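Moderator note: this is an archived Q&A kept for reference. The question asked for a predicted structure of one protein chain; the sequence and the answer are reproduced below.
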Amino acid sequence: MDIRELRIEDRVSHNGDIGKVVEIKTTHVRLMFKDGTSYLYNVNELEPIPITDKLIKKIGFTPMGDSRFALTDAALLKYDAINYMFITRYTHKLIKYLHQLQHELYDAGIELKIEL
């Protein structure tokens, strides 16, 4: 992963364990896990979390039956069998990973509570 892609509160994976980014240094990132532990990792040890239908349902998106998922009237995800497209009135962006979705929602003024 590129450390410049990360923000505080992003969710990423280390060896399959999902953690929340709580600190970003030059080459290292501190992750906080569900059990309250936190560890500092080299960014090269971290992996992005791929967007899946199961994941977007778990974080609150509602299936609309036509390859679209709605979070609010203003925020949609559309799936075209290969990619997810985040859609608002102001933007249409391809996304692959949870942290990218978190950034787009934040930039659109939508706070997303994620419990994974």
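Archived answer notes: Residues 15 and 46 are 8 Å apart (CA to CA).
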